Amino acid sequence: MDKEIKKKLASNWFKLLQNIICDDIEKIENKKIKFKSKKWNRNKIKDEGGGEFRILKNGKIFEKVGVNFSEVYGKLSKEMIKKIPGANQNPNFWASGISVVMHMNNPYIPAIHFNTRFIYTSHGWFGGGMDVTPCIIDNKEKNLLHKELKKMCDRHNKKYYKKYKKWCDEYFYLPHRKETRGVGGIFFDYKKNNWEKDFKFVSDLGVTFQMLFNLIIKSKYKKKWTMKEKELQYIKRGRYAEFNLLYDRGTKFGLQTGGNVEGILMSLPPIAKWN
């Protein structure tokens, strides 16, 4: 398949998924609050792509949720060429993806993160994943998450779940705290075995994420909580912010390739505390 067709198919899927997810979130909020949308360009002088990030704040269910779509291209800096596969042969790059971060009002509902992307230098690959960060551990919810992710992975390859779960546990880890960010999920990168099969896997993950966040939220949004539990949530959000600012690859890639700062930092919680 021609690489331009691959890029178009991947980009169109990420854009469609952005619309689907935002529509679901507004339905959960009973259409009483809407996303605010902002389109941006990577380079204001010449065409190097851009994207659209959508933010919803102060909902009844969602304290803050961001759904970001991007499609950018251009030439990598000398520093980035050393870090990105295939860039030493060709400094030109193309990247498209979707990123979603949900911070909830109710401390019983975990923060939920999802992203998938397709990047092309001298060759193309997929990356992404989803993970869940609760401040109040719920083993039933944790088991459901991993059961559904395993089921999804097994539809594509029986080896995926174990490999990508381990990758997630190792990736979403705060070495300075000696603790994981949450209860895990799956994470993968540099996925370039068979484009059609990889695209089906990435698409299936998007649909599974949509199903899981609806399931998790609808099972808990009516649960009563206290200010003491809200304080626990604020402390956990501090850990979330530490990871995203210190270690997250997507944050670093976005900032180092001229991405939109507001869109990149949408993952940060609205209020966080440190004790």
Overview of the molecule:
The protein is of the alpha+beta class. It has one domain (3-267): oxygen-dependent coproporphyrinogen oxidase. The chain is built from 8 helices and 9 strands. It has helices spanning 3-28, 78-81, 139-154, 160-171, 195-220, 227-246, 249-256, 261-264; strands at 36-41, 49-57, 62-75, 92-104, 111-120, 124-133, 173-174, 179-180, 185-191. The longest helix has 26 residues, at 3-28. It is globular and about 55 Å long. The model has no long low-confidence stretch (mean pLDDT 93).
User: What portion of residues is helical?
Assistant: 40-55%
Annotated CATH topology? oxygen-dependent coproporphyrinogen oxidase
**End-to-end C-alpha gap:** 53 Å
What is the average per-residue confidence, as pLDDT, rounded to a whole number?
93
> Any idea how many domains?
1
The structural class is: alpha+beta
Q: Outline the biggest β-sheet.
A: 7 strands, antiparallel
Global Rg: 18 Å
Q: Could you name the ranges where pLDDT drops below 50 across 5 or more consecutive residues? A: none
> How many strands appear in the DSSP assignment?
9
Indicate the overall shape.
Answer: globular
CATH H-level superfamily title:
Coproporphyrinogen III oxidase, aerobic
Q: Hey, roughly how much beta strand do the residues contain?
A: 25-35%
Structure annotation, total helices = 8
